[in-house]
Each structure stands twice: as structure tokens, then as C-alpha cells.
Amino acid sequence: MIFEKNKRILWCAFVSLLLPVLAGCGGVDTHHALTLRPPFDPTLWLRGQLKGTMLILDRNGNLRESADIIRNCDDLHGQQGTCTESIHYYYNNRNLNRELQWMAHYTDQEFATFTFKDDAGTVKGNLYGSLLHLSGDRQIPAAESDSDTGTVDVRIYRLPGDADRVFEVIEYTMWGVHMGRVEIYWQR
After folding, report:
1. Helix or strand run (H / E) with residue 157
2. Which residue in 65, 97, 114, 167 is deepest, having the highest Cβ count within 10 Å?
3. Most confident range, picked from 20-34, 87-101, 128-142
4. Is 188 helix (H, G, I), strand (E, B) or coil?
5. Would you put residue 164 in left (φ > 0), alpha (ψ -120 to 50) or beta?
6. How many C-beta atoms lie closer than 10 Å to residue 186's C-beta?
7. Which one, of 178, 126, 179, 188, lies nearest residue 155 by Cα?
8. Cα 178 to chain center, whole Å?
9. How far is CA 156 from CA 1, 11, 165, in A?
10. What is the C-alpha separation between 107 and 14, in angstroms, rounded?
């Protein structure tokens, strides 16, 4: 009897919780990204030494970790390469070294597809003007377990000004639930 009385209230509560999730599905506005200038050429960016400042945020936007990254890239064949990363995490006071392999593929229409692979996982995606958009499965940083992996949405933006200023945003989800975010500001 109590359940029958509260059935409508429970249904309204469920729908009110579900609507923000469905409304927040979002996506990449590729048409807008194509209008932004200057265009981004990751094959030129992924050469030499890059320095990054990384912030790892939990699902509530709280800072979980801060790190500096030194990325040294070797351009092997123009459309693929290998980068070694040295990461120093400040709060955990630990260092991590890893290797990143990247590959670009251009179609007849000069449309670029990129693949990035390292020990945390593989992401693939396309270049849209000033935006490189990638997705895949990766290990979640600052997770309780090293085996926690989630789906990632990676957006790498070429910023106006110096050609080597790039902003990278990585959104992590697990079973459709937002798990956190990583922001990296890159420069030479």
C-alpha cells in the first residue's frame, strides 16, 4: 500500500535523476572545431621535447594529483613515432616512465586518423581542424586499483599563439558514470 502511494513520487525521482544523465551525453562539435584557427598538425607537434603540467581531478572536480611531464619524441617515418615520457607526481612523490607510440593515417581527402598506444591503453580518433579527438579504453589515473580501466574521451586542442601550446583534456567514464578528468597543458 505504501509503495502504491509513493509509486508516482519514486517514478518522478527516477526520471529527474535520469534526465541530466541523458542530457549530458554531449559530443564533439566537429563543425565548430573545423572553423577554429590555427589548424593542428600533431605530426609536427610530436617531435622533440615537450613539457606538460598535468592535473588529475576526481569525479567531483577535486584535485587528486599534480604532475610534471617531460615527453621526448622521435619522428621515425613522418607519420609515426615513439615518445618517452618521464612523469613526476607531486602528491605521491613518485616517478613513472612510459613509452607512447603514435601513428597517423591520411586518406585521399587529407583526412587524418590517429592512434596513440601506451601501457595505460590505446586511443584512436580523428583530426578536425584545431582539435584531435580520440577515444578508447585506458587505465584510470589515481584510481583505487591499478587495474581500473574506463572509457576515455580525449580532446587535444591546438591553442592560438605559439605552435607548441596545446591543451589536452581526458574524460574518464566507467559503465557510463563520470569517473574523473585529466587536464594537461603542453608547451616546448
Report:
1. strand 149-158
2. 114
3. 87-101
4. coil
5. alpha
6. 19
7. 126
8. 13
9. 55, 40, 11
10. 46
pLDDT, tens digit (0-9, with 9 covering 90-100), for 80-110:
899 999 999 999 999 999 999 999 988 766 5
Where in the chain are the domains? 27-187
Cβ–Cβ < 8 Å for 113, 121: no
Q: What is the per-residue DSSP string for 104-153? A: EEE-TT--EEEEEEETTEEEEEEEETTEEEEEEEEEPTT-SSTT-EEEEE
Provide the whole-model pTM: 0.81
CA angle, 148 then 135 then 15, to 5°? 75
SS3 content of the chain, % helix, strand, coil (to 5): 15, 55, 30
Q: Which amino acid is at 127?
A: L
**CATH architecture assigned to 27-187:** Beta Barrel (2.40)
